[in-house]
Amino acid sequence: MKVKVIVTLKNGVLDPQGKAIQQTLNGMNYCNIDKVRQGKYFDIEINEIDENKAKSQVEEMCKKLLANLVIEDYKII
Amino acid sequence: MKVKVIVTLKNGVLDPQGKAIQQTLNGMNYCNIDKVRQGKYFDIEINEIDENKAKSQVEEMCKKLLANLVIEDYKII
């Protein structure tokens, strides 16, 4: 099955890449863009039929590799 | 309001970063990981109350800046 993960910076952690995108959009005359935050997205194909097992394995992988829990949050969708 | 965008590589476009993550996971004894594809995620705060207007503006922004439509797809969620 496929499991999707979004990893985002925690609130309060500076995001210069998101800031650059926001400023670029403002410069392109999209003046109503107040904030942009960039994150990562993972599409994981896992050879496991049981949805709960797959998700708990992906959660473990997030903690160990995919996200840096000091500055990032993850969400399995 | 907040609009969320996921930008992923089109099928068939090589994703060395995803491949590296997959191999690392396999090396960490997660042997049932068949494929990993990495994408980008954007959290956009837009000063617009009408949801449809906001989404159509974000779609325009995806086409112009956030995604490279030759190799990437975008999804507004």
Short description:
The structure is a homodimer of 77-residue chains. The first copy, chain A, is an alpha+beta fold and 77 residues long. Chain A has two helices and three strands, in the order E-H-E-H-E.
Q: Looking at the chains present, what oligomeric state does this protein adopt?
A: homodimer
Strand order of the largest sheet of chain A: 2-1-3
Structural class of chain A: alpha+beta
The whole-angstrom Rg of chain A is 16 Å
Count of β-strands of chain A: 3
- Overall tally of structural domains of chain A: 1
CATH architecture of chain A: 2-Layer Sandwich
Main beta sheet of chain A: 3 strands, antiparallel
Largest interface: A-B, 31 and 31 residues
- Which regions of chain A are unreliable across 5 or more consecutive residues at pLDDT < 50? none
CATH superfamily of chain A: Phosphoribosylformylglycinamidine synthase subunit PurS
Mean pLDDT of chain A: 97
Shape of chain A: elongated
Key terms for this structure?
homodimer; 2 helices; 35% strand; alpha+beta; elongated; 77 residues; Mth169, Chain: A
Describe this structure in words.
The structure is a homodimer of 77-residue chains. By secondary structure, chain A is an alpha+beta fold. Chain A has a single domain, classed as 2-Layer Sandwich (Mth169, Chain: A), CATH 3.30.1280.10. Chain A contains two helices and three strands; from the N terminus they run βαβαβ. The longest helix of chain A has 16 residues. Chain A is elongated. At the A-B interface, strand 1, helix 1, strand 2 and helix 2 of A face strand 1, helix 1, strand 2 and helix 2 of B. Strand 2 of chain A pairs antiparallel with strand 2 of chain B, so a sheet runs across the interface.
